[in-house]
Amino acid sequence: MFSTRNTIATTALAGLLSVASFGIAAAADTLPLPTTLKPIAGNGAAPGQPFLLNVAIGAKQAVGYFESRNGACKLTLMVGEAFDGENIPQETPVRFDVEVSEARTALFNTAEGKGIEFTCLDGAQAMGVRALDQIAGFPSSM
Predict the structure, then answer these.
(1) Which of 73, 71, 67 is nearest to 10 (CA)?
(2) Is the pTM of this model over 0.85?
(3) pLDDT digits 0-9 by tens, 58-116
(4) How far apart are the first and last CA of the chain?
(5) What integer pLDDT is reported at residue 9 of this predicted model?
(6) C-alpha pair distances (Å), 138 with each of 77, 130, 133
(7) What is the C-alpha to C-alpha distance for residues 111 and 92, in angstroms, rounded to an integer?
(8) Which long-range contacts link 97-101 to residues 24+ away (Cβ below 8 Å)?
(9) Tens digit of each residue's pLDDT (9 = 90 or more) over 35-53
(10) Partner of 28 for a Cys bridge, out of 20, 54, 86, 98, CB 3.0 to 4.6 A?
């Protein structure tokens, strides 16, 4: 069921993604990676703690948050083209919703080999986020 809170959060994320892509200061400052997020709602949510992710991944911009729900981290992430200062992005941002169990990870990669890893921590009261540079390769012994 799509609740009013989800509608508001989705609308806010879409707005933040478009604002962030135009280089205008938004409510969500770009966080350095690695970082730890607190949930936007549920167990562990606390005022004054970073709960909204806004980060560049190569040529992409990612904006997201998570909710603590039933001992898991419910991650919502929107990814779109980052604004380069001159050209307006033509691609439509993509929204990902994924439930990450405690102590498990979710990995999002871009076509250019950049990625972000999300790890559900502390009984779903925090989420670790780190940037990854993926390099394609083959094992040395085949």
Answers:
(1) 67
(2) no
(3) 888 999 999 999 999 999 999 999 877 788 888 899 999 999 999 999 999 888 888 89
(4) 49
(5) 44
(6) 30, 24, 16
(7) 16
(8) 98/74, 99/69, 99/72, 99/73, 99/74, 99/75, 100/66, 100/72, 100/73, 100/74, 100/75, 100/127, 101/71, 101/72
(9) 999 999 888 887 878 889 9
(10) 54
Q: Are 17 and 61 in contact (CB under 8 A)?
A: yes
Q: Which two tokens stand for residue 74?
A: 């419910």
- Sheet with 114-121: strands ordered across: 35-37, 126-133, 114-121, 105-109
CA triple 19-20-25, angle to 5 deg: 85
What is the rounded CA–CA span in Å between residue 129 and residue 117?
A: 6
Tell me the one-letter amino acid at 126: A
Q: Report pLDDT for 65.
A: 95
Give the SS3 label for residue 16. Answer: helix
Q: Answer for the pair 37, 127: CB distance below 8 angstroms, yes or no.
A: yes
- Output the DSSP codes for 108-137: EE-TTSEEEEEEEEGGGTEEEEEEEE----
